Amino acid sequence: MSAHKLIFLNQKGGVGKTTTCVNLGSALAALGYKVLLVDFDSQGNLTGSVSGDSRKPTCYDAVVGKVSVQEAIQVTPFQNLFVIPGSLDLAGLNVELVDEENREFFLSKALDPISSDFDFIFVDCPPSLGLITMNAMCWAEKVIIPMQCEYFAMEGLNLLMRTISSVRKTLNPNLEILGVLFTMYTKRAKLNNEVVEDISNFFPDLVFKTIIPRSIRLAEAPSYGMPINIYDASNSGTKAYHSLAKEVLDRVN
Ligand code: ADP
Ligand code: MG
Questions:
Q1: Distance of alpha carbon 164 from its chain centroid, rounded?
Q2: Higher-confidence position of 17 and 150
Q3: Given phi > 0 = left and psi -120 to 50 = alpha, else beta, which region is 65?
């Protein structure tokens, strides 16, 4: 069996891509699935969030063929959870790959040998639609779109959907949107409620029922190098990511 290959995509930064990648991954790991998180962002936030070490061979090293992908995989302190670290080197990759043949398929080439070693492989993308993200879109089967419940959300979503559908028509016919996920939700904010309602009405089948609440504990956990379910098992974020994991299992099966 090949792993479910998911990416977390939004050209906007600060919408909860990395937080979702880490905590959905950890929720699935806690349910007994073997999960690999790949940090494909030069900021390396995902790596630190699960106590990964970005000095070791990184995603960059594996993508440019400096090391085998197996050499880049690290065991985390958390059961069933593995990571390929990100590093600043990735910042130059967009430019380095531009003149290469098959420049959109370097990530696929790097990750293909380990496809059947995990139940889930997640790639955390940078906040842009450049060549790095294109590599992620060419490798993946499913996209999760995390978004904040704010005014320009719809515009951003439309651009993202057009991009995904053009990739599907050209480079990767297997690419599908698994779902749109609302993050950092505050019940009391009227605007949050309106945005959730509008987008849910517009894309009834795409929006996940689970909504991730705003929680200070979710923002703190990365600085301790822990996913939320380890850092604070009774937190609202732990419950939300567990419920998202159940929905994701339903949708992929
Ligand atoms: P992205 O990867 O899209 O740039 P992040 O996942 O890094 O976004 O989130 C941006 C910031 O918001 C981070 O500091 C993160 O800790 C914080 N954050 C993410 N989700 C939540 C949440 N549900 N509640 C509170 N803070 C959050
Ligand atoms: Mg991020």
A1: 15
A2: 17
A3: left
- Which atom in ligand 1 lies closest to the alpha carbon of residue 21? 6
Residue ranges per domain, the chain? 4-252
The phi, psi pair for 22, rounded to 5°, reads -65, -50
Q: Which residue, chain included where needed, has tokens 């080197």? A: 89
Q: Which CATH architecture has domain 4-252?
A: 3-Layer(aba) Sandwich (3.40)
Residues near ion ligand 2 (Cβ under 5 Å): 17-18
Burial of 233 (0-12, 13-18, 19+ CB in 10 A): exposed
Distance from the CA of 53 to the center of ligand 2, in angstroms? Answer: 17
End-to-end CA distance of the chain: 13
Do residues 97 and 76 make contact, with C-beta atoms less than 8 angstroms apart? no
Which residue stretches of 7-68 are H helix?
17-30, 45-49, 59-63
Give residue 125's pLDDT. Answer: 96
Q: Is the dihedral of CA 141, 246, 2, 19 positive or negative?
A: positive
1 alpha carbon to ligand 1 midpoint, in Å?
Answer: 32
Tokens of 122: 């997640």
Across all residues in the chain, what is the average pLDDT?
A: 95
Residues 6+ positions from 31 with CB-CB distance below 8 Å: 245, 249
Lowest mean pLDDT among 108-117, 141-150, 152-161, 164-173: 152-161
Q: What is the pLDDT of residues 1-58, one digit of tens each?
A: 899 999 999 999 999 999 999 999 999 999 999 999 999 999 999 999 999 998 889 9
Predicted ipTM of the assembly: 0.99
**3-state secondary structure (DSSP) of residue 143:** strand
